[in-house]
Amino acid sequence: MKRYLVMWFVGLPILLVMLPAALVYLFSPSSGSGGLPQQTAAPVSGPVHQSSVEVKVYRQEKKTVETLPLEAYIEGVVAAEMPAEFEMEALKAQAMAARTYIIRRLKSQQFDDVPGGAQVTDTVKHQAFVDEEQRRENWKEQFTWKNNRIRQAVLATAGVVLTYDGQPIDATFFSTSNGFTENASEYFESPVPYLKSVASPWDIQSPRYENTVKISLAELEKRLGVKLANTASTSGNWYQILERTTGNRVGKVSIGGKEFSGREFREKLGLHSSAFTMELRGSDVYITTKGYGHGVGMSQWGANGMAKTGKTAEQIVKYFYQGVHLENFDPILKEQTASAGKLSANF
């Protein structure tokens, strides 16, 4: 009898510890799955080429065209566009956005903006891209673990694109917001139902969240094509913010008798963001910006911040791209193949 009591008092605490863990294991969804369409598993160290679709990339420095398997191309884009140190779920979100971008281009068959018969460039005009040799050179002794993380993210999302009404979306992304993303209609002047302004408070952690540049008054006048007569003697009223956007950026600004959209002002002066304030100090203008990039779509630092709070890649992309769905791209391109005969249907 005493032996049974000893076993009871010893076993009960163990049972109380183990039972909750067992229940969590049995009833929790698979870690990191995020509801992604199922893909064929493959080792992280193996090839990521799970599709016969190829991408013709114009290499800007070499002035040549390289043909790459789709998923190898996505690896190079994610490696160029997002730090490998970012959270895995953020890297997966970036992989889906990058894949969606190129699938949308392949479906449209509109490549007039690319030379040499290519389909996309390796620059930010489309999507930045670095090949394996460049990654080895850039990452040096850190190449193996960084490349494995990028490959893992691409493998985990292989073939998955973001769609709206059954079509691949314009999956725009950028580095850092000012705390909010922007409505597409307020920056690109064209409304897009899934590109709506949302809060992104995580971006304050970005090293590019705030930046101040100094421009001489003469240089500012030259770039904007204005003349600021007697500006130094007019305190505080030498420029006016006429409109602000939903994402709290400058929508319209008046300076030197001219009006500019926030985008025009940013591009003419080469600013990090259209969320800016200005201060005149003698013959110099100090311009402070918040955020880095156009602000439309997915914020990369916002995605990383969400991932740090436990959000999945699916939750991240559905937050920044409102109302989208995750689908395999096969049916999307098979339809194109049937009509154009330009892409292989053997996915």
TrEMBL record:
**What keyword terms does UniProt attach to this protein?**
Membrane, Transmembrane, Transmembrane helix
- Sporulation stage II protein D amidase enhancer LytB N-terminal domain residues are 59-164
Could you state one GO cellular component term attached to this entry? outer membrane-bounded periplasmic space
Query: Which biological processes are named by the entry's GO terms?
Result: sporulation resulting in formation of a cellular spore
Q: Which residues cross the membrane?
A: 6-27
Q: Name one Pfam family in it.
A: SpoIID
Please, which domain of life does this record's source organism belong to?
Answer: Bacteria
NCBIfam families per record? SpoIID_LytB, spore_II_D
Q: What is this protein called?
A: Stage II sporulation protein D
Q: What is the native source organism of this protein?
A: Brevibacillus composti
The organism that produces this protein has a lineage beginning with:
Bacteria, Bacillati, Bacillota, Bacilli, Bacillales
Gene expressing this chain: spoIID
